[in-house]
What we know:
Blueprint: H1 2-18, H2 38-42, H3 45-62, H4 67-70, H5 75-89, H6 101-105, H7 112-128, H8 133-143, H9 147-150
Helix pairs in contact: 1-7, 1-8, 3-5, 3-7
The protein binds protoporphyrin IX containing FE.
The site of protoporphyrin IX containing FE (HEM) has 22 residues, from helix 4, helix 5, helix 6 and helix 7.
Amino acid sequence: MKIAIIATALFAIAAPAFAAETVKDSAAVAPVIAADDSLYREFGGHDGLVKLVDDFMVILLDDPRTSVFFVDAKQDHIKKMLVEQFCVVLNGGCTYTGKGMKESHAQLGIDRASFNALVEDLQKAMDKNDIPFHAQNKLLAALAPQHRDIVTN
Ligand code: HEM
């Protein structure tokens, strides 16, 4: 319950606030949200992000609301791209080499409920990895506006 409320609230608050910074289907998939690498270090740096994203994919595959999207997808590739993307957002000094969010999700027919489910699952993975609450909120607030390019249904 706590998770659902936070996800919904962040969505409502963060989306308008970040609207001006959202770049339409660019490789710059989300704004960089930290002035230095302190937030990146709170996520455990590269190794922390790899562990987080591994756990995230396990949770996504175990969740009937999201598993249908990921079961036949290139999971290793998606995980690698998520590590890069989170690293960029957290100012960890990486380069994102994947596709833009609009292009990579265009054919998937994702609705708002599925998007919110994925956000909840990311929160679960961050809880499991003891990411501090304030750091969790910063990443979620940066990712929330992506729904404009990802939700097509
Ligand atoms: C803020 C939310 C999201 C972020 C940051 C995100 C990020 C990404 C990234 C980085 C990729 C890899 C792009 C590439 O191939 O280069 C990807 C692909 C993918 N995403 Fe997402 N995603 C989000 C939401 C979702 C949601 C809500 C779903 C489904 C419920 C989803 C399903 C997928 C699938 C199935 C692929 C693989 C598509 C393919 O086969 O090419 N994503 N996503």
